[in-house]
């Protein structure tokens, strides 16, 4: 059976300890989780990391397009940190940057990306989509579609998709599974509309899970049912 190809969306917070935007301990933990999961699951892995540890593109003194450019640049910083830390851990990886966000990594080239993934390298996509008005969740859905991923994993701070944000609403109820239509109809804010919609069009399932419980990434990659899966 062909290896499963997985797009892992990490939040920027996976590199932060709360006081430091990029902390050595958090970076090391994230890399260890990835390394142990990949080593024992034989998946082909690609990663998109967000920027929420440093910047979310909204500020009343900065125009939206400028703020979005800043967000994309932060994803480059986070991706560079992750890429170096993976290399230090002995993992082979390749870093590609969205076209238009150049100079710090190789430009995105779909054919080359697929060759790297097929060789067993972990591929990191930096710079978002390269366009303002998008997010790294949408970037993850876009890159997942471009590399023909079998699934998108959203590694986050909550253990699945709820009827409302569980951090803000204690009565929120967790879903074990959902269809794309349900996720879109219910306006669930765990991912943005564009990301859900793109995954629906390309039939790529999304699993939302708690990345901060040690071993959870390994469990998902090994097919264990945790978190919430959104699918057709
Ligand atoms: N319906 C919902 N179910 C679960 N979580 C939800 C829901 N609505 C909103 N959330 C919130 O969405 C957050 C997911 O955001 P996450 O931490 O992954 O940030 P992100 O915006 O993807 O990170 P980054 O900006 O770094 O990419 C959760 O922490 C949760 O509080
Ligand atoms: O394609 C993209 C991706 C991201 N941005 C901007 O970057 C920030 C950070 O991304 P998060 O997904 O919120 O971590 C985002 O808020 C946008 O401002 C972008 O413009 N285009």
UniProtKB/TrEMBL annotation:
Activity regulation: Inhibited by UTP.
Binding site for UMP: 68, 129-136
Positions that bind ATP: 9-12, 52, 56, 156-157, 162, 165
Primary localisation category: cytoplasm
Annotated metabolic or biological route of this protein: Pyrimidine metabolism; CTP biosynthesis via de novo pathway; UDP from UMP (UMPK route): step 1/1
Keywords: ATP-binding, Cytoplasm, Kinase, Nucleotide-binding, Pyrimidine biosynthesis, Transferase
GO cellular component: cytoplasm
GO molecular function: ATP binding; UMP kinase activity
Pfam families given in the database record: AA_kinase
Catalyzed reaction equations: UMP + ATP = UDP + ADP
Compartment(s) of residence: Cytoplasm
EC number(s) given by UniProt: 2.7.4.22
EC supergroup of this enzyme: transferase
InterPro entries: AceGlu_kinase-like_sf (IPR036393), Asp/Glu/Uridylate_kinase (IPR001048), Uridylate_kinase (IPR011817), Uridylate_kinase_bac (IPR015963)
GO biological process, any: 'de novo' CTP biosynthetic process
Keyword presence, Metal-binding: no
NCBIfam families listed in its UniProt record: pyrH_bact
Subunit comment: Homohexamer.
Family affiliation: Belongs to the UMP kinase family.
PANTHER family associated with the record: URIDYLATE KINASE (PTHR42833), URIDYLATE KINASE PUMPKIN, CHLOROPLASTIC (PTHR42833:SF4)
Biological function: Catalyzes the reversible phosphorylation of UMP to UDP.
Name the UniProt record assigns to this protein: Uridylate kinase
Organism of this sequence: Endomicrobium trichonymphae
Gene from which the chain derives: pyrH
């Amino acid at each position: 059976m062909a290896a499963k190809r997985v797009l892992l969306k990490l939040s920027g917070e996976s590199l932060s300890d709360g006081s430091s935007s990029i902390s050595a301990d958090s970076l090391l933990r994230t890399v260890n989780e990835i390394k142990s999961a990949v080593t024992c699951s034989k998946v082909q892995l690609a990663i998109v990391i967000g920027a929420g540890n440093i910047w979310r593109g909204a500020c009343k003194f900065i125009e939206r397009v400028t703020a979005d450019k800043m967000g994309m640049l932060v994803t480059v910083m986070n991706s560079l940190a992750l890429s170096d830390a993976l290399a230090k851990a002995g993992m082979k990886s390749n870093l590609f940057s969205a076209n238009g966000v150049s100079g710090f990594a190789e430009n995105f080239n779909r054919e080359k990306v697929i060759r790297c993934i097929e060789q067993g390298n972990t591929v990191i996509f930096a710079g978002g989509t390269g366009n303002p008005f998008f997010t790294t969740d949408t970037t993850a859905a876009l890159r997942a579609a471009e590399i023909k991923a079998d699934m998108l994993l959203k590694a986050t701070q909550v253990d699945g998709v709820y009827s409302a944000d569980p951090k803000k609403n204690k009565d929120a109820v967790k879903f074990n599974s959902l269809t794309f239509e349900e996720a879109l109809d219910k306006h669930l804010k765990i991912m943005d509309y564009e990301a859900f919609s793109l995954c629906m069009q390309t039939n790529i399932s999304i699993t939302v899970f708690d990345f901060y419980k040690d071993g959870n990434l390994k469990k998902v990659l090994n097919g264990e049912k945790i978190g919430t899966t959104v699918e057709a």
